[in-house]
Write a structure and sequence with these properties.
single chain, 261 residues, mainly alpha, two-stranded antiparallel ribbon
């Protein structure tokens, strides 16, 4: 998309520029539309604020080339949000976040392709399928938004990108590489200029070194740390998801206490 802006503006190139811009933006805007619908920022059949979405995606330069008729896709038709049930939207969102997070994890090609979660190796396919109900419960958790954010606004875009890359590499390595509890993990986290509270739950700092506190991938702390690595297209959605995770955990803890009372 960035290269489109470098194409020389001539009458002959205008059609090419518009076509490339529309192709590149269509998928991103449809994905953002689904994400925003899941988080209640827009509803089915409502008009999509194209300019706002392009600005959110960092594609402000594409505004002159995008019109309603260019957006038809999985989540937008005739410039409006496609009507879908919430369960379908949740699964679509989950698969999209997993695809972005697991892009370096190999896929077992012996399985036929389908529209669900990819058959990632190292046991991830089964793990992610089992994690999905928890993801849905979190999305369904009602919260009162406040100023909390695990990844603060003081980080610029490059720093946030580096944070998510480092955090994801560390959390995935616990399962993929079989990191041992109590083992040193300096190479994963020492150079991170920020560590979110959910990731910190897995770490012990001792005498200037970092050690893995929890290698149990079935523990709640690990599952929440993994979900905290989901990178959302809308930063406000990322903050809202963090709030929902913490509220869901609080509700689950209270429920367990009640069961044992």
């Amino acid at each position: 998309m960035k290269n489109i802006a470098k194409i020389k503006r001539t009458p002959e190139n205008e059609k090419i520029i518009k076509a490339l811009a529309c192709m590149g933006a269509n998928s991103l805007i449809n994905t953002l539309a689904n994400e925003n619908t899941v988080f209640g920022r827009i509803r089915s059949k409502e008009k999509v604020p194209i300019k706002q979405y392009l600005e959110t995606l960092g594609l402000k330069r594409m505004i002159p080339y995008i019109a309603d008729e260019n957006l038809d896709g999985a989540n937008i038709q005739n410039g409006c949000i496609v009507e879908k049930n919430f369960s379908e939207r949740c699964l679509e969102l989950y698969i999209e976040k997993i695809s972005n997070l697991f892009y370096k994890i190999p896929i077992d090609k012996s399985f036929e392709e389908d529209d669900g979660i990819e058959h990632y190796k190292y046991g991830w396919y089964e793990y992610l399928n089992n994690l999905y109900p928890m993801f849905v419960e979190i999305l369904n958790t009602e919260v009162q938004p406040d100023l909390f954010a695990a990844v603060p606004d003081l980080l610029d875009l490059k720093e946030k990108f580096n944070y998510y890359e480092a955090a994801s590499k560390f959390v995935l390595a616990i399962k993929t590489n079989g990191l041992r509890q109590g083992g040193r993990i300096d190479r994963y986290v020492k150079n991170m200029n920020f560590i979110s509270p959910l990731i910190k739950r897995l770490i012990i700092v001792r005498k200037g070194h970092y050690y893995l506190k929890n290698s149990n991938i079935n523990s709640l702390d690990y599952k929440l740390a993994l979900l905290s690595c989901f990178k959302f297209m809308n930063e406000d959605n990322a903050k809202l998801f963090e709030l929902k995770m913490l509220k869901w955990e609080e509700n689950a803890t209270l429920s367990n206490l009640h069961n044992y009372a």
